[in-house]
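Lab notebook page, bench 4
Experiment: in silico fold of construct C2
Operator: M.H.
Input chain length: 209 residues
Purpose: comparison with the prior construct
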Amino acid sequence: MSQVHVIDHPMIQHKLTIMRKKETGSKDFRELLKEIALLMGYEVTRDLPLEDIDIETPICPMTAKEVAGRKLAIVPILRAGLGMVEGLQTLVPVAKVGHIGLYRDEQTHQPVEYYCKLPEDVDRRLVIVTDPMLATGGSACDAIAMLKKRGCNNIRLMCLVAVPEGIAKVQTMHPDVDIYVAAIDDHLNENAYIVPGLGDAGDRIFGTK
């Protein structure tokens, strides 16, 4: 079974509280999401393997550390997942970025695929799937399945807010994928929105309704 990592750093929780407020506008919402993604990225990448390399500092030669092997791929689930990409790219500028397009059918609440564009070597990278909200878990599960069909076997899911229902679905469908969240909220309402949540993340990021 995969692990759920709740990253409860005080600065993350503080910024998340501001994001939850209904009066927070799109500009501040986007900036806060970027900042939280950067902070969460430290934990998501904490166990990346290192290797020794020989370098010279201005003072002397030394053996130093660098990340071993191929780097990361960041794959946001469109469109809200885009809001987390810039923060992760600030942390790992060499990461390649793919995109998976899914939207939720308003009647069935099930994800519908409409786009998938991934780095050519994505199957040889650690893939971080980003989506601010882990609600029903349908979009996340479908996105992970799409990546696995393309040979990816090292996948992590990074979300801002989750609920137990979504976590349980991902763990059932993809028990090899660890989940990283900033908060686990109470439940889903009748419209499959997270309670207390922060509203529709995509609308709040881009200023749409």
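Observations: The chain has a mean pLDDT of 93. The first strand starts at residue 4 and ends at 6.
Next step: discuss at group meeting.
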